[in-house]
Structure formats: structure tokens, C-alpha cells
Amino acid sequence: MWHWRVFASYERAGDTLIVVESMKMGITVISSSPAEKYCRRPLLFIGGTRMLFAGIAVSAVLFGILCGSSALAQGYPNKSVRFIVPFPPGGANDIIARLLGAKLTELMGKSFVIDNRGGANSIIGCELTAKATPDGYTVLIVPGGHAINPSIYKKLPYDTLRDFSPVSLIGSGAYVLVTNLDLPVRTSADLISLAKSKPNEIDFGSAGIGNITHLAGELFNLMAGTRLGHVPYKGGGPAVTDLLAGRISVYFSTVALAASYVRAGRLKAIGVTTGKRVSILPNLPTIAESGLPGYEVNGWYGLLAPARTPASIIGRLNAEVRQAVQSPEVKDKLSALGVEAVGSSSAEFEQLIKADVVKWRKVIRQLNITAE
Asked: What does DSSP say about strands 42-46 and 112-116: parallel, antiparallel, or unpaired?
């Protein structure tokens, strides 16, 4: 009689893969649907405990797991969802979270309540999410800087890769180099020339140490041979407030945050950080075009849940987020913020985070940036 050993299972975006090993046929991976495929007599490992089930029994166990997971998704959500924004109100993450939260509320029938938990370069909000009950009622928006923090901070109160369940990449977008009106520059070349004549006298702000807005400035210094001073803030909103007041001179802002101030003539836009121009500011050159060839920094925004959130709920959230960001009204509003709507699979977003952790680790080591 055939015997099968189930030695691993993997859940992602509503799908369950059961990895089984036949005593005669080697390793096979079979899909979770339909559950009748599992009518074998396996040696099953659950939570490290070895159990021998008759074929009908293990089939019932697996069928129960699958049905229970499906039932969770069908009944979700039955109350409001806490939507953590790890930055203060007013910044790009806050703006995008509120836009997405409103659409998810419409699609899913329960409120997605924004909870701003700014500070420590998103660490406070991320820790709250990592330690939250993994039931689908806490979600978190993160920027690309989420993949940078592991290389900046010697010790985080969570593991960037293990303590979260990726839901979906929301979108990707450019940053824009802006200055206050008093700084006598119009191009990247102008800024480079002025900064070289006044080393350490011109300050740039950031949304926090190790944030992409910080690394964008340090990369500018590295490539241009300048020494712009760094002033970290607890988010983009406070940094722009001080930029408008003249307390700092330069900021590498999200387009979402800076565009309205640029259009109103309250800030000067010098260039976008991406390799090509953006549709919301079509006449604004890239930083590479206007004086610093080869310079390029891209950003993204994504949605996470606590690790061990049921796969069926991650799958439901993923489907709704993808529908939300591709809806004409949300897509157009994201575009107006300089963000290109994406809506990826959970697995694709997970791979992006892993790749960015590796990429930025190399850059940070070169720049020798650390934070306590």
C-alpha cells in the first residue's frame, strides 16, 4: 500500500500548497484544490508531532483546514480594520493610505480606520503591526524605506522579513528635489555649485534617518561631491513645514507631498529622482538631466499584515487592494500624486522587499550610515 509523508505546507494569497513525499516516487507538490486529492494514507507532521492517519482521516483533516480557511475569508471583515500609518498626518504615506482606505471601506463594507503612529522612521508603527493579533484586523502601509531599516538600525524590535505577511504592492513613484524660495538655485547643477562653495552650510531635511528621503540626499552628496547637512524629521509633513519656513533649504520629497506646493509657487522644484520624467510634472527635468548624470532613486508603497495572518484573509485583502488601485478614480488620484498604481500579488511584493533589503544594504555600507 502506498504511504505518503506530508512534511511541509505553504500558504500564500489564499492558496495552500502541501508538499508530500512518496516512499516510492520522491517529492511531489500538489495543489490544495480539490481536497479529495489527499485521500491517501500519510504520515502527517503537525506542529512537530508525528501522527499516522488513515486516508479518510487525513483527507478530512485537510478538507477541514481548507474549508475553515475559506470560511474565514467569507466572513471577513465583520468589524472595522485598523489601518496603521507609521508616519504623522500630511505625508505621502498618510495621503495614500487614506485614499486606499476609503476605497477598501467601499469595497469591503467595513471601515478601514487610519491610525497614525509616526516616529523612529516608521519603526513604532511597524512594531505595533508586527505584535498585533494576526486576524486581518490590522494592516500597515509601508514605503520603500521599510526595506532599508534592517541595514540602518543595529537592532529592530521586529524582523522585517519574518514578522509580516505581504499583501500587495500599492504603487511606485518618484521623489522630487525641492528647495525653499530663498535658495538661489534653479537646477541640480546650480545646487551642486552653491553647495560646493558653502560646504556644510546648506541643510537638507528627511523623513527620518535611513528613510529614502535621507538616502536620496546622501547619494546626491556622494555623486556630486557636495556636503549638504542632514536634518532628520519624524515624517515628510514636518520636514516640508520647516522647508516652507526656511529652517532647512532642501528636501527630497515625494511628489505626492510636494506637487501642490510647487504648483502654488511656495516651493521650487529642481528635478525628479527617477530615470525619466513624471506625468504630473511633465516639464520638470530629472536630476540626471539637470546636472547630475546617472543619479536615480525610485520609491514604492505597499500593504502588510502581521505574520501568520490566515492565507485566506491575505488573499481576500490582496484581491480587494488590486481592485481598488486599478479602479479609475483611485488610479487617477494616485497618478496625480506622482504614484503609478500597481497592485501586485502577495508573492511578488514579498520578492520586491527581499530584493530591496539586499540592494540597499550594499548602498548603506558604502555610505556608512547608521542609527541607534
From this structure: unpaired
**Under CATH, domain 81-173+307-367 is a member of which superfamily?**
Bordetella uptake gene, domain 1 (3.40.190.150)
Pick the CATH number of 178-272 from 3.40.50.720, 3.40.50.300, 3.40.190.10, 3.40.50.1100: 3.40.190.10
Same topology for domains 81-173+307-367 and 178-272, yes or no?
yes
Q: Which residues of the chain have pLDDT under 70?
A: 1-73, 372
Asked if residues 314 and 346 have their Cβ atoms less than 8 Å apart, the reply is yes
Q: Domain map of the chain by residue range?
A: 4-74, 81-173+307-367, 178-272
| β-pair type (81-85, 138-143) | parallel
Q: How far is CA 58 from CA 52, 177, 266, in A?
A: 9, 60, 67
Over the stretch 89-110, which tens digit does the pLDDT of each residue have? 988 899 999 999 999 999 999 9
Residues 324 and 318: their CA atoms lie apart, in Å, by 10
Q: Would residue 352 be called left, alpha or beta, if left means φ above 0 and alpha means ψ between -120 and 50 degrees? A: alpha
With CA atoms as reference, report the closest residue to 204 among 232, 182, 225.
232
Q: Are 250 and 178 in contact (CB under 8 A)?
A: yes
Q: Which residues, including other chains, have CB under 8 Å from residue 314's CB and lie 6 or more apart?
A: 12, 13, 14, 136, 165, 167, 305, 346
147-172 tens-digit pLDDT? 999 999 989 999 999 999 999 999 99
Instruction: Give all strands of the β-sheet with 15-22 in edge-to-edge order.
Output: 26-31, 15-22, 4-12, 42-46, 49-52
